[in-house]
Amino acid sequence: xxxxxxxxxxxxxxxxxxxxxxxxxxxxxxxxxxxxxxxxxxxxxxxxxxxxxxxxxxxxxxxxxxxxxxxxxxxxxxxxxxxxxxxxxxxxxxxxxxxxxxxxxxxxxxxxxxxxxxxxxxxxxxxxxxxxxxxxxxxxxxxxxxxxxxxxxxxxxxxxxxxxxxxxxxxxxxxxxxxxxxxxxxxxxxxxxxxxxxxxxxxxxxxxxxxxxxxxxxxxxxxxxxxxxxxxxxxxxxxxxxxxxxxxxxxxxxxxxxxxxxxxxxxxxxxxxxxxxxxxxxxxxxxxxxxxxxxxxxxxxxxxxxxxxxxxxxxxxxxxxxxxxxxxxxxxxxxxxxxxxxxxxxxxxxxxxxxxxxxxxxxxxxxxxxxxxxxxxxxxxxxxxxxx
Length: 388
Hints:
Layout: H1 2-32, E1 37-45, E2 48-53, E3 58-62, E4 68-71, E5 83-84, E6 95-100, E7 109-117, H2 119-136, E8 137-146, E9 151-156, E10 163-168, E11 174-177, E12 189-190, E13 201-208, E14 214-223, E15 225-236, E16 241-246, E17 252-256, E18 262-265, H3 268-279, H4 284-299, H5 317-323, E19 337-343, E20 348-356, H6 367-377, H7 382-385
Parallel strand pairs: 3-7, 4-7, 10-14, 11-14, 17-20, 18-20
Antiparallel strand pairs: 1-2, 1-6, 2-3, 4-5, 6-7, 8-9, 8-13, 9-10, 11-12, 13-14, 15-16, 15-19, 16-17, 19-20
């Protein structure tokens, strides 16, 4: 027995040593293997591509004649139906996933394989997705979440159009959550339903019930956002930012304006009318004027709307906001009152939706909820971001 044990232990020790050595080699090879490059082609010269990665880096990629270049349609998950294309078929604006050649030497990445998507195909897919979000989508602040049953209850609309929407999710529902300080759909990460909390903003799309109060969600995206109302302290057009003194905290907040930010200005008459409706007060003069202002978004203008009326279900503040004139950062000035929905943050945020000309609305408690609903259903919320 002693001789057997003497033989077995050295044998086992040798096996362990070999396994450790193989593991070390595998880990070293994995550490040395170049990572794939994913992004958008920004320039093509000779046999070299310039790719702006999704992280914002600029990378140069040499494409030898031996590199495999494939094209797939947007949304395809594998390469079974990929089409082989020549290098000359690549174009600026195309999306590309570059697998570097691990055997290549030199400072410039050399492509082993490129999988590309045409810019025109992406644009078409984005347009269809945007239309689908608008047609089959709902959105608004979260009232409650039941993770066990997969039910999320939203409040949608304001005033006479306010209603509760029940969103039903299943294991097949794609749930995503915006990354911190981001309003881009393509930067959203998968997240479980228990990551969604009361007060969050949520946008979902799927099949609606006949009365629109229930939705079987195929996809949903959520995030924590901040409502801010205040006055403009300073503007930085070059830096695409402004500083607003938040009326709630009495502290300045730096607001970053992105290309996705939707900015509009209410006309004085419309702002006054909207404030009266949200506060639940009307007058004869306001009611008469309100008919024209409210029916404008539905009937095509403020001038001929008196017959439309503003009572009951005809009042749709989201429609009114969406028809307000678009503005740019340069159109704002110091002292302007603004309301906005932005990413969550204490001293610096990115604006999703910004509304100017809101002096009368600052006294209406329901105004903030109004803007939250608009940002997710009719503004620069997930419907538009889905197409990014």
